[in-house]
Amino acid sequence: DVKVTQSSRYLVKRTGEKVFLECVQDMDHENMFWYRQDPGLGLRLIYFSYDVKMKEKGDIPEGYSVSREKKERFSLILESASTNQTSMYLCASSAQENTIYFGEGSWLTVV
Amino acid sequence: DQQVKQNSPSLSVQEGRISILNCDYTNSMFDYFLWYKKYPAEGPTFLISISSIKDKNEDGRFTVFLNKSAKHLSLHIVPSQPGDSAVYFCAARSGANSKLTFGKGITLSVRP
């Protein structure tokens, strides 16, 4: 079974803090993604990566950056957290095939 | 510009009946479509997919129909079960290795 692990399930951070969300997949997938899910807005793509050290902006990259130093690990970084970044963050991975697999999600609250 | 649309935010059906979840898209370059199911506080799980070269794909109680001329697909669940109650996302992509575009989701409630 594909395993996508998000290390932090629930976080509470203060406005202005730097936040790291970590994601690891164990299937040697080339592609990794970060989405956020908000009520009424569905899943929106923040950033994705097709290979180590490569990254592409998604639909809502503002306020975020990413890092992919190793194939299995994809990190989402909030340089200076703001309250409008309170959300559920979902990491996903895929191989060359069509299906992407999601992690359990990380609930971030910025106060 | 919303390329994948799930116009109904919610659907309620009786246990044992059919659930039909609809999805429309605008990008004619989409060639692969997927449905994901999501429970609260969990990540989405893959349910079923269909390539644009097909018009139907079936997996147990789940069937996805694709009408390319209408740019419409639907997910049928027969018979519906209370455990099917969840949010269902339709997704589409154009070309291998391209990103998925998701709809906003529809909340299905199956009444016992």
Q: Helices, strands, pairings?
A:
The complex is a heterodimer of chains A (111) and B (112).
Chain A: E1 4-6, E2 10-13, E3 19-25, E4 31-38, E5 42-49, E6 56-57, E7 64-70, E8 73-78, E9 87-94, E10 101-102, E11 106-110
Parallel strand pairs in A: 2-11
Antiparallel strand pairs in A: 1-3, 3-8, 4-5, 4-9, 5-6, 7-8, 9-10, 9-11
Chain B: E1 4-5, E2 10-14, E3 19-25, E4 32-38, E5 45-51, E6 56-59, E7 62-67, E8 72-77, E9 86-93, E10 101-102, E11 106-111
Parallel strand pairs in B: 2-11
Antiparallel strand pairs in B: 1-3, 3-8, 4-5, 4-9, 6-7, 7-8, 9-10, 9-11
Provide a short characterization of the protein structure.
The complex is a heterodimer of chains A (111) and B (112). Helices cover 0% and strands 54% of the residues of chain A.
What features would you describe in this structure?
In chain A, 0% of the residues lie in helices and 54% in strands. Chain A is mainly beta and 111 residues long. In chain A, the strands form 2 sheets. In chain A, strands 2, 4, 5, 6, 9, 10 and 11 form a 7-stranded mixed β-sheet that branches. A 4-stranded antiparallel β-sheet of chain A has the order 1-3-8-7, with no helix packed on it. Chain B starts with a strand and ends with a strand. Chains A and B meet through strand 4, strand 5 and strand 10 of A and strand 4, strand 5 and strand 9 of B.
Structural class of chain A: mainly beta
User: What gross morphology of chain A would you assign?
Assistant: globular
Helical amount of chain B:
under 10%
Cα-atom radius of gyration of chain A? 13 Å
Could you state the order of secondary-structure elements of chain B as H and E? EEEEEEEEEEE
Strand content of chain B: over 45%
Task: Summarize the biggest pleated sheet of chain B.
Answer: 6 strands, mixed
| Number of H/I helices of chain B | 0
Low-pLDDT residue intervals, each spanning 5 or more residues of chain B? none
Q: Globular, elongated, flat, extended or rod-shaped: what is the shape of chain B? A: globular
The amount of helix of chain A comes to under 10%
Through-space gap between termini of chain B? 38 Å
Largest interface: A-B, 25 and 23 residues
The number of distinct β-strands of chain A equals 11
Oligomer: heterodimer
First-last Cα distance of chain A: 37 Å
Overall SS class of chain B = mainly beta
**DSSP summary: helix tally of chain A:** 0
Radius of gyration of chain B: 13 Å
